[in-house]
Amino acid sequence: MTWNVLIETLIAMRELWFYIGGMLLLVTLYHLTIMYYRRSRLKRSGIQEIDQMKGTTFEDYLKILYESQGYKVSLTPKTGDYGADLVLKKDNNKIVVQAKRYAKNVGIKAVQEVIGAKDYYRATDAWVVSNRFYTQPAINLAKANGVKLVTREQLMNQMIIFNNGKQTHASIVKETNQKG
Prior knowledge:
GO terms for molecular function: DNA binding; restriction endodeoxyribonuclease activity. The protein is an alpha/beta fold. The protein has two domains: 1-44; 54-164, Trna Endonuclease, Chain: A, domain 1 (3-Layer(aba) Sandwich), CATH 3.40.1350.10. 58% of the residues lie in helices and 15% in strands. It has seven helices and five strands; from the N terminus they run αααβββαβαβαα. It is elongated and about 80 Å long. The chain starts with a helix and ends with a helix.
């Protein structure tokens, strides 16, 4: 094949490459739009929405929440995560997080999982973050092992800061009334 034939073939295929490139651009823009929409919708979630989320969606929410606090956040694999759902990094600290979106109080198993994850990921700290409260055995084990338990109220306070104080007070008032 001579250079002239090769050049003519490439010129003829230019139109095809233009269409392929355009389609790739459209697909990329579509996916970016979906990701932006999903992220902004997650960001606006209140505690009542979190109570209805799937566990993996809660992990995605926490990723966005902690990124807003300056952490570099990695989600661990959905299976074989060695007891951590997220790994946070900031100021030479590495924190493993076990995320528990439950309908009832969190028990000792979540604390046991994150203790194992702390060693596996060589983390400096270990947290369990939940939309609920913790059983007394979970609290005792966490204290004995230096695990931070992020309570429902602490999560709600982080959410208010995350939303620049725009979290609806109605959901907090309702939550307080339900506890009392």
